[in-house]
Design brief:
Layout: H1 5-31, H2 37-41, H3 44-63, H4 72-76, H5 79-91, H6 97-114
Helix pairs in contact: 1-3, 1-5
Length: 116
Amino acid sequence: MQENSTLYILIMLFSVLTGAVSQVLLKKAALKPHPTFLSEYLNPQVIFAYILFVACTFLTVYAYRGVPLSLGPVLESTSYLYVTAFGILIFQEKINAKKIAALILIIAGVILTAIP
């Protein structure tokens, strides 16, 4: 791994977080009533969410300059943590024992992979 890979890892994690935020924006937009089919897709919230997705793509591509290819999917898996946290905090979704067990496995996998 390169000596400045920490910066690239942080960029990748920020990209994943931004992608999770854009997913929340899309879900919030989907929960709102829209007068027409076209207004479901051409409203500021949805357009901004897709702009964030495009930005995430560019950030992820850039981050792969310093993130080993084998570590990328591990960092991307942190999106499950973000999405779960947003679901609980923003949408008041319930979390059950199976989801908690799955999140623990994800966290353990990220930690084990991060250990040199």
